[in-house]
Protein: Nucleoplasmin core domain-containing protein
Organism: Henosepilachna vigintioctopunctata
Amino acid sequence: MSSFLLVHKDVEGEVNGGQVEAMTWKGSVIIPVATFSVACTNNQMILDLPFPDSPVIFSLGQGNGLVHIIGNHFICTSMEPFDDMDEVIDEMDEDEQGEE
């Protein structure tokens, strides 16, 4: 998750709080990540929160909200070397020599 953005103006005295339910090695945990109120002049919080394990549930824990959550979904994979990697490197070297 990279940003948490409150879209509408808060009602006087209302506090809006965003939260994330994520998995840990012990199980599920709920983490508050952003809080906005009328007194707050900035309606966006820049966050850098990675969540390596799924599922992850984003919700408004308090208030009436209308919030936008911005982030990226990355899928990590391990890179396995090619069986013919040496051949690929040799071809690249030959191409570079041919250009000179």
Q: What stands out?
A: The mean pLDDT is 75. The chain has one domain: 3-99. Residues 3-99 form a domain with the Jelly Rolls fold (CATH 2.60.120). The longest strand covers residues 28-37.
